[in-house]
């Protein structure tokens, strides 16, 4: 049984911790800072076994050096492709790799270029349970900005995520849910799943709680970027196919 824990850092980031029930080793994803994670590990008597990096933006890696000092034996997985000529130290991942991490937990690396060209996602699976750490590729009700890749690359990356089992638990790095749902509501005013999810997300945020993680099944019902193959939606926004609609929505969202 995999447990997923969100540690809020910076303005709206999460470091995700994945832990096997009854084990004291944990995997941490995208450490933009180190202090909050170190405190959590000490308080809960946990050991850091792996650090996974989805891409090389500062808010995903700035805690790495400090964490490596405290946990020199933790294995670090990083994107293989260099970022502005720089490479991170660690096991280089291009997508397609499979590792065994913790007891009976498999980790699949998936290449998801778009937000950056080197972006990878990490799929953890154990006993038919799936957890995807997707960085800045998919957000709840949204998707990452295209800093380096093309709309087509990001569209293909989202298709890969959308092809996973519907019960997959998604762990994006940012808490953008309410703003994304406000956009989704304008894109698809008649979709009741959006209205319901917006109410739920607002109630959680008022209590200071994360709206994440979410399941792929939930996201399929209200995330416009996963709904581009919907013929009605293509017609409403006069786009010929799913890729055109995706491109149109991504551009629109940049200025929303
Ligand atoms: Zn980023």
SSE diagram, text form:
Elements: E1 2-9, E2 13-20, E3 25-29, H1 35-43, E4 47-52, H2 58-61, H3 64-70, E5 75-79, E6 91-93, E7 98-101, E8 105-111, E9 120-126, E10 129-135, E11 138-139, E12 142-143, H4 151-162, E13 169-172, H5 177-187, H6 192-206, E14 214-215, H7 216-222, H8 231-236, H9 242-254
Parallel strand pairs: 3-4, 4-5, 5-6, 10-13
Antiparallel strand pairs: 1-2, 2-3, 7-8, 8-9, 9-10, 11-12, 13-14
Bound molecules: zinc ion.
Please tell me about this protein's structure:
This protein has 256 residues and is of the alpha/beta class. The protein contains nine helices and 14 strands. The chain has helices at residues 35-43, 58-61, 64-70, 151-162, 177-187, 192-206, 216-222, 231-236, 242-254, and strands spanning 2-9, 13-20, 25-29, 47-52, 75-79, 91-93, 98-101, 105-111, 120-126, 129-135, 138-139, 142-143, 169-172, 214-215. A six-stranded mixed β-sheet has the order 1-2-3-4-5-6, covered by helices on one side. A six-stranded mixed β-sheet has the order 7-8-9-10-13-14. A two-stranded antiparallel sheet has the order 11-12. A hairpin with a 4-residue loop joins strand 2 (13-20) and strand 3 (25-29). Helix 5 (177-187) packs antiparallel against helix 6 (192-206). The longest helix has 15 residues, at 192-206. The protein starts with a strand and ends with a helix. The mean pLDDT is 97. Residues 55, 57, 115, 136 line the site of zinc ion.
């Amino acid at each position: 049984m995999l447990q997923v824990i969100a540690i809020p850092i910076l303005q709206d980031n999460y470091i995700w911790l994945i832990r096997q029930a009854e084990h004291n080793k944990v995997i941490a994803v995208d450490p933009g800072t180190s202090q909050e994670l170190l405190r959590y590990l000490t308080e809960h008597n946990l050991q850091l076994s792996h650090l996974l990096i989805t891409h090389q933006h500062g808010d995903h890696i700035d805690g790495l050096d400090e964490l490596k000092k405290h946990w020199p034996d933790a294995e670090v997985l990083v994107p293989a492709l260099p970022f502005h000529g720089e490479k991170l130290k660690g096991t280089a991942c291009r997508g397609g790799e499979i590792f065994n991490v913790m007891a009976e937990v498999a980790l699949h690396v998936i290449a998801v270029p778009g937000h950056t060209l080197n972006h990878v996602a990490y799929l953890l699976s154990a006993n038919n349970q799936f957890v995807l750490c997707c960085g800045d590729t998919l957000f709840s009700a949204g998707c990452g900005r295209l800093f380096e890749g093309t709309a087509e690359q990001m569209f293909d990356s989202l298709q890969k995520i959308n092809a996973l089992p519907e019960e997959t638990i998604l762990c994006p790095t940012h808490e953008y849910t309410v703003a994304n749902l406000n956009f989704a509501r304008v894109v698809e005013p008649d979709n009741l799943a959006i209205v319901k999810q917006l109410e739920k997300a607002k109630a959680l945020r008022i209590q200071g709680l994360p709206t994440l993680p979410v399941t792929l099944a939930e996201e399929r019902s209200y995330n416009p970027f996963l709904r581009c193959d919907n013929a009605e939606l293509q017609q409403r926004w006069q786009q010929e196919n799913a890729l055109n609609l995706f491109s149109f929505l991504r551009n629109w969202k940049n200025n929303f």
